[in-house]
Amino acid sequence: MQSVRVRTKVDPAPSRWAYRMHRLWMTPYFRAFIRKGLPTFVIVVSLGTYFSNDARQSAVVNGLVGLRTQFEARPEFRVGLISVDGASIDLAEAIRGKIGLKLPLSSFDIDLDAARARVESLDAVASAVVRVRAGGILHVEITERVPVIVWRKGDGLELLDATGHRVAGLAERSDRPDLPLIAGDGAEQAADEALAIYAASAPILTRVRGLVRMGERRWDILLDRDQRILLPAENPVQAVERLIALDEVQDLMARDILTVDLRNAHRPVLRLSPFALEMLRQGRGVAPLETKL
Questions:
Q1: Domain 149-292 class in CATH
Q2: Overall pTM surpassing 0.85 (yes/no)
C-alpha cells in the first residue's frame, strides 16, 4: 500500500522580525544613518585609534611637512631676481635694499604685503605693487613722487611733491635752481597754495626769490632788491592777481618800495625805502611813514 504525501501550505506573510526590519529600513533617518552615519563613525573611531599613538602622529606630521617642503622648494617657485619699474636708478637700488630679502628664496616664504609696505615707507615712493612673476622674478612697480618745490627747513633743504610730502633731502639750493623755494614752519603743509601763488606771480617770477610762511597761516613773497609782499591769510592768490594788475598799469614794483602790505584787501599799504621817504619829505615838507595806494 503506497503512502500519500501531505503538502504543507506555506504562509506568504513575512515573519515578525522581517516585518520590523522592513519598516525600520523605510525610515529616512535610519537609512541615512546606515549609509552615511555608520561609515563616518567607523572611520572616525579608526582614525582616532590610529592617531592615539604619539609616534604615529609625529610620523604623519613629519611626512606632511616633508611633502610641503619638497613642493615649495621646486625650481619653478624659486625667486632669484628683483625687478623694479617706474623708478630712477638710485631709487631702484634703494628699493632693493629696503625689501631686504636674501635671494634665492621660495615664493611661499615671501610676504608680499610686508614687502610692499617697506617699499612705500620710502619718501620717494607714492605707491607700489609687488607681485611674483614667472621666471622667478619679484616684480616691483612703483609710482615715484615728483619733486616740484624746495623747502628750507631750519638749516637744511628738502624736496617736496605737490602735496607737500617729502621726496628727498637736498644738499645745496644750487642743485635744483629750477624749483621754487618756500621756507618757514608749516610751509610744507601749504605747498599746494604756495605753488598756486607762484603760478599767479608769473609776470614777476624772475624777481621772486621765495615764499616765507608766517605764523603757519599766511605767506610773504620775497623779491630781489629786498622787496617783500605781505599776503593775506585768506585768498592770497587773488591778492597776487590784483597786485599784478596794478603793477601792469602803474609799474608799481619798479618803484623804490620796500613792502607792499596786502593783508587788508580794502586798504593795501606801501612802505617806502628811506631814500624815497627823504625825497617825499623834500617834496611835501611832512612825510608820512606810510602812504596808501
A1: alpha beta
A2: no
